[in-house]
Amino acid sequence: MKKMFPRSIVTRLALWLLAAPLLLASCNKDTDAIKAAKAHEEEYRKIDDALIQAYFTRHNISSSNYQRTESGLYLVKLEDGAGELIKAGNKVQVKYIGSYLREENENVVFDKSYGNRTLCECTEVTVGQGQVIRGWEEALKLMKPGDKKQVFIPSYLAYGPYPGNSIPPDEPLQFYMEIKQVQ
């Protein structure tokens, strides 16, 4: 005796096969919201880079003293650590101070690990788990145990057009970061 699929399964499968090409075709097209988000990021790539360069000019930081990544993240080496670069999956203890970099609010601290009632006065992050902003994720992967760096994060690698707790939208940020321990 032959077993047959219930009619509802066959009908669903036929409908899905008919709809699949339409659904897949729409995946390749950017929606208006995606296009607007991309345009916004492109605009702020230029704005944020100019703000970071203005900070460097005010503080006499020359291009020989920093590393700029393709994404627009800047790292200024303060002290070299030792060992291998941090990679995804590592648990990292980071001592940090986060502040603004625009001239009008420069050095206003919005967050810090100092005084957070932990022995190391740091925060622990598992790299690659989305626990921190994209700029931190990228910066951590460019650091080693013991590194001390000043990291300049464009707004689109921070909170973008969405305000953080005390951070305005489209705000580039700077962090003093010290890698205390890597596991």
From TrEMBL:
Residues of the signal peptide: 1-25
Listed EC numbers: 5.2.1.8
PPIase FKBP-type domain: residues covered: 89-183
Source species taxonomy: Bacteria, Pseudomonadati, Bacteroidota, Cytophagia, Cytophagales
Reaction equations catalysed: [protein]-peptidylproline (omega=180) = [protein]-peptidylproline (omega=0)
Coiled-coil stretches: none
SUPFAM superfamilies in UniProt: FKBP-like
Name of the top EC class for this enzyme: isomerase
UniProtKB keywords: Isomerase, Rotamase, Signal
GO terms for MF: isomerase activity
Protein name: Peptidyl-prolyl cis-trans isomerase
Pfam families linked to this entry: FKBP_C
Organism of origin: Hymenobacter cellulosivorans
InterPro entries assigned: PPIase_dom_sf, PPIase_FKBP_dom
